[in-house]
Structure prediction request, 426 residues.
Amino acid sequence: MSEMKAADPLRAQALDLLAEIETKQQFSNLALRGREVSPFVRELVYGVLRRRMRLDYELDAHLKRPIAGMRPAERALLRMGLYQLRFMDGVPSYAALDQSVRLAKQRCPGKEGLVNAVLRACQRSGDPAWPADPAERLSVRHSCHPSIARLWMEQYGPEICEAMLAASSESAPLVLRPNRLKTDAAALQKALEEAGFAAERGTLCPEALRVKGSGILESRFFREGLCSVQGESSQKAVELLDPQPGDFLIDVCAAPGGKTMAAAERMGDRGRILACDLHAHKLKLIAREAERLGIGIVETRCRDAREEDAELLGQADRVLADVPCSGLGVLRGRPELRYKDYDKECAGLPALQSAILESASGYVKPGGTLLYSTCTISRAENEAVAEAFLESHPEFEVLQRLTLRPDLTDADGFFICKMRRKELCR
Prediction:
């Protein structure tokens, strides 16, 4: 008897990661942190997580009992196989089927026949019959909680809603921010390309670099603090804040610190930045990141952003209030957020955001800048919060307001409102 051929180790690694994420109910970014994974594994893991609801809906049509009743490894295996068939153009159908069966023999012995039959049935059948209700249909087709589909349908209409959901289901590019203290975009791009990475300039921020290749986070570019990972929309927020050398800047919700570091680099590491957060362990991460990048002007302070600090009133040139939000703009990179019930789990966010903005505004000196931002697409958390604040604070005026939609920018969804505190009358 010939020895059974082993399954592809990359697919086996993806299966183990998916089963672990589900069993331990981990966040995907935390499960992959510190692990060496190839672009193929990353695409397979994040792709299955982003498309999970659609994959299960289609698989259930060919299963005698719902996929929800299977073991995590069995579910992950079927989802991986179908994801390769439907969404990975570079994987031939025969390879997706063959590798799924081989993997079933190794990880789910006795289920290889079921895996083969169900995936072949899916291959033959094409798209299933989608739900009749418009919100339910978009929810299933684009794998998100129905409350998210309803929210975007009500705010933007069905066509824009579907476009945003489709964009939010694609792979997020790896975007780097060059460290201005040590290099610039042109020099870093050249060095990355010489090292074998593909790099191109961003569309929202020309200084940003979109990079393809394996091992960038373990490369000398990171060890030497030449760059950081930061999405273009997040970089855009700091660009609009426009911190200057010598400024006193307060970041009231600083963790994980990307905008804090970007501001320090723009300031040439001259001035003062006070980075605040509610969680002390996150402040330690910010301090370590500042050390990696060679930044010395960042101080950290553990505090609740809703509570006003009397010592800071009227002291800051610029205040950044990048507040906690529902995260609907970053569904590509944080697939777990797709399945939250927005109506139930996010109802209290606008009150929290308003309280933080109210407190933060007190730190801005006359003529200074206040920037309110979120990584979500929700008028209740964005425009409504900003408009209510401005209505009750005539001493502030809007300089710029920007909503970044993922379907229009190929970047994360973001809301940015830049305000100025008017000069005192004399």
Q: What stands out?
A: The domain at 232-421 is CATH 3.40.50.150 (Rossmann fold). The radius of gyration is 24 Å. The mean pLDDT is 94. The chain has two domains: 9-129, 232-421.
